[in-house]
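A student in our group prepared the protein record below, which I am reviewing. Thanks in advance; the entry in question is below.
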Amino acid sequence: YDALKEMLVPGAFLVIFYYIVVFLSNRMLTSMTEEKENRVTEMILTSISAKTLVVGKLISILILGAIQIFALLTPILIAFLGFSKNLGLPNLSNFTDGIVWDGMTILKAALILVFGLLMTVGAIIALGSAMPTAQEASNYFGFIIMLLMAPFFVMPMFFTAEKTIAVDFLSYFPLTSPISLLIRNTLGTLSNEEAFIGIGLLVVFGAIAIWMAVRIFQFGTLSYGKKVSLKSLFASSK
């Protein structure tokens, strides 16, 4: 029994999530803070709404991630498929034969990936909109990344035969949920009921994160030189 054949496809979604968050989210963070520092947002908001701008940035970072992953994998696949014999590369068919393509597992991984990224990028946009400078935002950004990667630090818990309270907590807590759910889906320990509960929570948390990002961006655009506090944000909303 080769468990790797079953884990390869859902594990690819985990790698994609990790790649996009680590390599592209910092670009989104600095984009928000630098535009605010340079007073560019004042001119942009004269022609479009804050909601359109925030959602556009969110969609653009996801598209950029997909393009970069495609650009990274395309030459590798071309080399293996077209020039493997000439270059002395191993035959991929020996490795790909027997890979399990389970539709439900792939569906769960895809939904967790999409809504997990929406929630994560929404939270990062909210952070960038609340901070007055990119330097200050980067300090809090490290904390968000640490929470996102927390499941990797307790990986042995995911391999236990019985579920623990800690695993359930990591699976449903907003910032640790995407990677925890993707790890469990890869290992085959995530039931359909637990998966769709987790996905439902990601949808709710993602909507809240995007709503907060829009509200903070609207208020933070005019708050130069100081952080946007939740108290002043809700006071302004009222």
Notes: The radius of gyration is 20 Å. The chain has a mean pLDDT of 80.
